[in-house]
Amino acid sequence: MVGAKRSIKNVTDNEEENLSVPPGFVSLTSLTLKKIVTDPNSATERDRGPGLVGVPLRNSDLESFKMSLLQRPWISHGQFERVRHQDDSAQIGNNLKVPVGAPLPKGVIRGCENCHDCVKVTARWHPEDSYLPPLDDAPVFRPTEEEFRDTLKYIANIRPRAENYGICRIVPPPSWRPPCLLKNKEIWEASKFSSHVQKIDELQKLFSKRKGSRLHEKIETEMPKAAKIGKLDSSNECVGDSEEDSGPEFTLKSFKKYADDFKVQYFRENDTVAATGPKRSEPLIARVESEYWRIVEKPSEEIEVLFGTEVANQTIASGFPVAATPAKGTGKYSEYVKSGWNLNNTAELYGSLLPFGCYSSSTVSVPQIFIGMCFASQCWRNEDHHLYSLSYMHVGSPKVWYSIPGKCFFKFAKVVKKWFPKLSKHPELLHKHVAQLSPSVLIAEGIPVFRCLQNPFEYVVTFPGAYHSEFSCGFNCSEAVCFAPIDWLPHGQNIIEHYAGYGFKTLLSHDKLLLGAAKEAVTYLWDSLTNKSSNSKINFWRSACGAAGTFTRLLKMRVENESIRRKHLCNMPMSRPLGEVDDATKRECCICLYDVYLSAVVCSCSPNRYSCLRHVKHLCSCGWTAKEFLFRYEIDELQLLVEALKGNMKAIYSWAKNIQKLATSDKDHTRKNPNSTSLCESNGLAA
C-alpha cells in the first residue's frame, strides 16, 4: 500500500516468534528459531536443495530476515539505510508505467549542433491518464480604487478572511496597468540570464537525492551539527542545489521562443501536423494542470524544462518603473513609481518592519524575478522568517498556486518526514524546495490544500508560515518580494526560536528589527508629546503600542527572556557595551547561528567568534575569567523602553532624552509635567 509504514508486528505478535532468550544474550541473537511445520507443499520446495535457488521469499520472511540483520552489531547498516531511502521514493512512484528504478526514455531533447536554444519534444501529453486534484479555490479580492491606494492597510483588512487559506489573489482595479519594463528592447532582446534545468518527472523525489545534486553529497556525509549548520542559508541556494545542472543563457525573447516551441510540440495531438501549420489555440489551464500532476506522479518519459530566477536589478531589472530608471517614458508613470504595489517599494513601506532588521548585505527585501515556461515549478516551501510575500505577474501565461495554511506548518513537516524519513535528520530542508508532494497525498493525510490561479496583472499574497508551491502554464515573467507588517511579529518571533533550536542561518536580525522599530516608535510618541501633533505615522505607532499593543507585548516578552538568560548565565567579571560601531555588522552564535545583536559572549582565545547566552559553555574550553560579556543595552534600559511603549510619559521622556538623545523642541518648555504616568488618555494611545 502506498505510504504504508513498515511494521514488525508480524514478528512480535506471532506466537511462533515468542521464544525466550537467555538474559544478556539479546544483542547477540543472530538467528530466529522456528518450529518446523509439516506441510507437503512446503516440503516440495525444500526438496529443491539447500540453496533454494529461485524460491521467492515471502514478505514476512523478508522482514524477519531484515530484522535479524539489524540485531547483529558487527554489521554496518549504512547500506540498508540507502536501501530504505530508495524504497521511500518507490512508495510514491509505485504506479509508474515503467519499473521503479528503470530509466525513463527522454521526452525532451535540448539544443542541437547548430544552436543551444532549440528544443525537440518527443513526449506527448496523455489526457487519458491525467487528473485534477479536487481542491477548493483560495479567495479572490477585487479592491476599489480607494481601497487600492494603501497596500498594507488593504492586506491587513483582508487578512481575517484569507489567512486560513494561506494564500489569496488580488485583482487590481481596471485602471492599474503599470508599464512592464521587461518588454523594453534593451532588456527583452539584450539582457541575458542563466537558466536552470528542472526534471518534472523527478519533482516528487527528495531533491537531495536527485542526480547531480551538490546537496546530496552534503547530506550523505555525516558531520557534527556545529560543522554542518548554516550550509543552507537561503532559499535561493537551495533552488540551485536542487536542480541537476545549469542550462544555457537566454534573453527573454529567445527564452519565450524556446518555451512556446516546447508547449506547442508537447500538446500537439497529431505528429503529422506540420510545425508550420495553422496555429492551434492554447490548451485549457485544466488540461495543463492535470497533465502536470500526471508527469509528477506517474511519469512515462523524462520531461526536462528550464526556468530562470534572478535578484531584480542584477542581470534582469525589475519589471516595475523606479525613480532612477533611464528607460524611455518612465517619467509619465510617476504614480506607479511611488505606489506601494510597486514591488520595489513594498518591503520598505511605512508599516513594514523589514528594513529595521536588514543589514546592507541582505537581499531579503529585494524583489526576485522568476522566468518560467510550461511545467516550470517551485516546490513546497515557505518564506524565510515566515514573512509575507507579494507576487505580481508581469506578462505571459497563468500560474497555478497551491497553499497550506500556516496553522498546519508543523503538521505538514510531520507528513513530509513520514514520506521522506531522511528529513528527520535534516529538518533544515523542510523550509526549502524539498519535493512536490501531490495535493492528493496531503489531503489524504488530513492537510488542507487550496488552489489559486494567477493571471497577468494580478497579485498573489502568501501569509506567514504558509507552505506554497506553484507551476507555470507557459512562458511568463513574475516578480515577488517579502514584507513584514506589525501582525507578522508573533510569527517572526516564534520561528526565530525554532531556527536557533535547529541551527538554521537567519537572513535578518529579529532583535535588531525589534529595537529599531521600538526606537522609531518612541521617536514619534516623543514628537506627539512635545509638539502635540498627530499624523499617519504617529497614529500607526499609537495603534501598535500601548499596554495591550501587539508590538509592546512582544518586546516585553523578549526583554523578559533576555533578563532571565543574563541573570543565570552572565555573571562575568568582564563586560562592555557593543557600541554603535557594531550596528552595521551581522554577528551570529558560532553554535546555533542565533543572531547576537542584543548580547553576546566572546573569549580572548578567539575574539572573532561569538556565542549567544545559551551556548556560553560551548564557545571554548577556556576558563570563565577569559570570557567577556557584550551587551547593547542594560536590562534596566530595555525595561524603560518597554514602559515608554506602554505610554508612560516619564519613561518616554527618560528614554528620549537620556538614551536615544532626541532633540527637544521649543514647545517642550510648556509641555505637560514629565512625571505624568500615562500618555494614553491625553493622546489616545491604546491602553
From TrEMBL:
<dbReference type="GO" id="GO:0010468">
    <property type="term" value="P:regulation of gene expression"/>
</dbReference>
<dbReference type="GO" id="GO:0000785">
    <property type="term" value="C:chromatin"/>
</dbReference>
<feature type="region of interest" description="Disordered">
    <location>
        <begin position="666"/>
        <end position="687"/>
    </location>
</feature>
<dbReference type="Pfam" id="PF02928">
    <property type="entry name" value="zf-C5HC2"/>
</dbReference>
<dbReference type="Pfam" id="PF02373">
    <property type="entry name" value="JmjC"/>
</dbReference>
<dbReference type="InterPro" id="IPR004198">
    <property type="entry name" value="Znf_C5HC2"/>
</dbReference>
<feature type="domain" description="JmjC">
    <location>
        <begin position="335"/>
        <end position="500"/>
    </location>
</feature>
<keyword id="KW-0539">Nucleus</keyword>
<dbReference type="GO" id="GO:0034647">
    <property type="term" value="F:histone H3K4me/H3K4me2/H3K4me3 demethylase activity"/>
</dbReference>
<dbReference type="GO" id="GO:0005634">
    <property type="term" value="C:nucleus"/>
</dbReference>
<dbReference type="InterPro" id="IPR003347">
    <property type="entry name" value="JmjC_dom"/>
</dbReference>
<feature type="domain" description="JmjN">
    <location>
        <begin position="138"/>
        <end position="179"/>
    </location>
</feature>
<dbReference type="InterPro" id="IPR003349">
    <property type="entry name" value="JmjN"/>
</dbReference>
<dbReference type="Pfam" id="PF02375">
    <property type="entry name" value="JmjN"/>
</dbReference>
<protein>
    <recommendedName>
        <fullName>Histone demethylase JARID1</fullName>
    </recommendedName>
</protein>
